[in-house]
Amino acid sequence: MSKYWSPILKNIKPYTPGEQPKDKKYIKLNTNENPYPPSPKVIKAIRKATDETLRLYPDPVCTELREAIASLYQVKENQVFVGNGSDELLAFAYLAFFEPAAKPVLFADVTYSFYPVYAALFKVNYQLIPTDDDFNIPPEGYYQENGGIVIANPNAPTGRSLSLESVKAILQHNRKCVVIIDEAYVDFGGQSAKGLINDYPNLLVIQTMSKSWALAGLRVGYAIGSAELIEGIIRIKDSINSYTLDRLALAGAAAAIKDNAYYIKIRKKIIRTRERLTASLVAKGFKVIPSQSNFIFISHPLCPGEEIFRQLREKSILVRHFNKPKINNFLRVTIGTDTEMDIFLEAISAIVTGY
């Protein structure tokens, strides 16, 4: 620990991303990446953008991409913000809407582990809302005094989803604070809250293009909300970095949004594979949490999750294990291609056979 580090840096525990090993070839089911390539139109757009204009700064307000997103979701351009991945958008939102050392921000005890990291970084108090034994998020847990709310829906790492009626109930009980619905996985079967933004000016919906849009390598995310919330995020962005997205990312992301039909097809393929894999694992005695995401959350009644994780890695299959209370016996498994999931199923079946 360096003597030059600030007190915040000394005390913070950074987010730990899923490993990206380079020592050999793995079946990579640990970071919820899309197993299918982006639309060919994305590649074409990026190649076209690779010209002499790279010497110039990109559009700081990302006009073309915001217009494409607004058109797709039937909202106004001033209700859309785009940035360098949804994690950056979450950071901007914390700075814009949550007060340091004030009333606590609420989020689930089992959820995306970046939420408490940002809270520590920005000195935001927070309170954990307990999930039940099957990782359901109780809406009534959010019917209390607070300084803001963050809900991943569908939730990560469990894949559980709140109904739109439950989201509405939470919004109705919290009209005085900002409610962030993090919809990184919503395109795989969840119900989006985007249609509620005109009724609830305190609602901010954040999505990423890393998962259902197969663009994890471009680092693009977007937020949809009332014009006043979007203006607040823009003010934070322009106080940190006015050029958050480069020309290639802007071109590729806009092309993806404009080819939504392609992505609907690959999302349906992932959902079919998820349901087939879930049925197979349940038949083999696994507990599988119902998922509306591009991953499943599983445990075995006899074989410890950490042991399955270790043996799968030895077989060149990567999944995610979280050594945390309530979930340390579970594994999060990204849905890959049908071929990849067949190999995974054969491997995990062999591992638990001896238990």
The CATH superfamily of the largest domain is: Type I PLP-dependent aspartate aminotransferase-like (Major domain)
- What CATH architecture of the largest domain do you see? 3-Layer(aba) Sandwich
Main β sheet profile: 7 strands, mixed
Low-confidence stretches: none
Overall pLDDT confidence = 96
Structural class: alpha/beta
Give the spatial strand order of the biggest sheet. 2-8-7-6-5-3-4
CATH topology of the largest domain: Aspartate Aminotransferase, domain 2
Task: Return the string of H and E elements.
Answer: HEHHEHEHEEHEEEHHHEEHEEEH
Beta-strand content estimate: 5-15%
- Give the C-level CATH assignment of the largest domain: Alpha Beta
Gyration radius from CA atoms, angstroms:
21 Å
Strands, total number: 13
How many separate domains? 2
Description:
By secondary structure, this protein is α/β, with parallel strands linked by helices. The protein has two domains: 7-37 and 261-353, Aspartate Aminotransferase, domain 1; 40-259, Type I PLP-dependent aspartate aminotransferase-like (Major domain) (Aspartate Aminotransferase, domain 2). Helix content is 36%, strand content 14%. It has helices spanning 7-11, 40-49, 63-73, 85-97, 114-121, 164-172, 227-237, 247-258, 260-283, 305-314, 338-353; strands at residues 27-28, 80-83, 105-108, 126-129, 148-152, 179-182, 203-208, 221-225, 287-289, 295-299, 317-318, 320-321, 331-334. The strands form three sheets. A seven-stranded mixed beta sheet has the order 2-8-7-6-5-3-4, with helices on both faces. The protein has a four-stranded antiparallel beta sheet with strand order 9-10-13-12. It has a two-stranded parallel ribbon with strand order 1-11.
